[in-house]
Specification:
The chain is mainly alpha-helical. Helices cover 70% and strands 0% of the residues. The protein contains ten helices and no strands. Helix 1 (18-49) packs across helix 5 and helix 5 (120-156) packs across helix 6 (166-177).
Length: 316
């Protein structure tokens, strides 16, 4: 008999506490991140390699595909560079992944009807809200991740290295723009997280419950995998444009006043990107993003669900 809602499970309060569910969500995210991170690095390089606004300021213009970009990184910088920036990503998930799950489950409980069901619209709103709040808190770690991912390309272009590790990257950003500078690109970053979580959290939750409710499927790995695939695709489709803008805003150099030198803000970045490179520029990096989000969602959710089952807790 499938479990339709967490409240129906007889698991103890201890294994379903906020702290335990938060920690398991972080562990699932770390496992997924380690396995799929090279796709994220490749996606970031694709999004900035043919950036016309940057070319006008002396940056070399390139136009490589996903495979050529990934192979080029491995050959020119070393295979391990495909995981450059992984540490701030772990730091991000220690804040972001646990927070978004707890926020979403609270929203979902508030939106449940008398039968314990949540509509797609309500789930989408919950995903948007949970993703926005979690990303706003974790945005500085994402900024450091983007800077570390782009550093190898700067060095290949003949520019001196700016930092050697994660700690130095934080120090550099603080010296450039102060505390407020850590939230550079936060607006599109939050928008991206809102859209991605509408796909990931809401699509996963709705698809899983739909399969279990309408087709009588058990809460098994097959259901988790199907729901995760749907979640990854929806997240990539709705989240890529905001991801492109976020990457470009975070990667741009800053002037003495701590402001970006290429774009005045998100709208200016959007206008320049579309004007200089066409509307499809907003979907640069879509394939590696999808190839990352699909397996990421699969590993993350299967890890979360199975750890919760193993400790006697409720699934998502």
């Amino acid at each position: 008999m499938p479990v339709l809602r967490n409240a129906d499970s007889p698991a103890s309060k201890a294994t379903n506490s906020v702290a335990v569910r938060y920690g398991v969500a972080v562990l699932g995210a770390w496992a997924a991140e380690t396995a799929t991170y090279p796709f994220d690095l490749t996606k970031t390089r694709l999004q900035i390699q043919s950036e016309v606004a940057a070319a006008k300021h002396g940056y070399k213009l390139e136009n490589h595909g996903m495979i050529k970009t990934a192979v080029g990184i491995a050959k020119q910088e070393g295979v391990l560079k495909l995981w450059s920036g992984l540490m701030p990503m772990f730091q991000r998930h220690a804040i972001y992944s646990g927070s978004r799950l707890i926020f979403y489950e609270h929203f979902r409980n508030a939106f449940k009807d008398a039968n314990g069901k949540v509509s797609l619209g309500a789930a989408s709103i919950g995903g948007l809200a949970a993703g926005s709040l979690a990303q706003l808190i974790a945005s500085p770690t994402d900024l450091v991740k983007v800077q570390m991912q782009a550093e190898g390309r700067r060095i290949l272009q003949g520019k001196p290295p700016r930092f050697a590790n994660c700690r130095q990257a934080y120090a550099m950003l603080y010296s450039e723009s102060g505390i407020k500078g850590f939230w550079r690109g936060a607006v599109p970053n939050v928008q991206r997280a809102a859209l991605v979580n509408m796909g990931d959290l809401a699509a996963y939750d709705y698809t899983k419950q739909f399969l279990m409710r309408e087709f009588g499927m058990a809460d098994t790995a097959a259901v988790h995998a199907t729901a995760a695939f749907a979640a990854g695709f929806v997240a990539a489709v709705v989240g890529t444009p905001a991801d492109v803008l976020k990457t470009r805003l975070m990667n741009q150099p800053v002037g003495p006043d701590g402001r970006g030198t290429l774009y005045r803000g998100m709208i200016d970045c959007l206008q320049q990107s579309v004007k200089n490179e066409g509307i499809l520029s907003l979907y640069k990096g879509f394939l590696p993003l999808w190839m990352r989000l699909g397996p990421w969602a699969l590993i993350n959710w299967i890890a979360f669900e199975n750890i919760m089952l193993a400790i006697g807790g409720n699934t998502f």
